Amino acid sequence: MDALLTLRIxxxxxxxxxxxxxxxxxxxxxxxxGIDPRTVGSGNLGATNVFRALGARAGAATLLLDAxxxxxxxxxxWLLVPEAMYPVAHGWAGVSAMLAAVMGHSYSxxxxxxxxxxxxxxxxxxxxxxxxxALLELLIFIGVVSVSRMVSLGSIIIAxxxxxxxxxxxxxxxxxxxxxxxxxxLVLWRHRSNMVRIVRGEENRISWSRKGSATKGKxxx
Length: 221
Fold this sequence. Notes:
Blueprint: H1 3-20, H2 24-33, H3 47-54, H4 56-80, H5 87-106, H6 119-129, H7 131-148, H8 151-169, H9 174-190, H10 192-200
C-alpha cells in the first residue's frame, strides 16, 4: 500500500468517525424542544427514545439525520479513495467508513464517548452500499415494528437476515459481505439485553398515538 493511499484511507476513517459522532438526538432535543433526551424516557441518545419521548416529528428528524451520517461517511470515503485510482481499496474504504461512522455514533467524543447502538447510521450507509438489500430490509423492519411495536425486535430480525440477503444479491462484493456479517454480529451483541426482555415479555413498545409513552429501559438506535 503506497503512502498516498494510506493517507487517504486514514483521512476517510477519521472523517467517518467524527461525522458519525454528531449527536443529532441531543441537538434536535435541546435546540428545538429544550429537552435533553438523556433526561427523559430511557435516557438513550437515539431516534427511538426521541420518538417516544418527544414525538413522531422529532423522532423522524433524528432518524433521518442519524441515517444521513452513515450515507455521508461512505460517500466521503469513496471520494477520498476513488475507484478509478484504487479499484480494490475503493470497496474496502466504503465499508470501513460505515463501521467508523457506527463507532462514532456509539462512542461519540462529543458527549463523553457515549451514544446509541448505530442502527440508523448503519442503515444510511447500507442504502448507499447495498440499495436493493437495504430497501428490502426496510420493508421487513417496518412490517415487524408495525405488528410488534418493538423497534428492537425489528432491528434483531434484520440483523439476522441481512448477511444472507447480501451474499445472494451481491455475490461478488467481498468487502460488503465481510463487513455486513461483522456488523450483524455487533448489532446482535449490542441487543443482547433487548433479547432477554423480549423473551420475558418485558421489552418496551412504542405508541403510535402519543408522545412521552416510553417506559424506562434501553433503546436500539
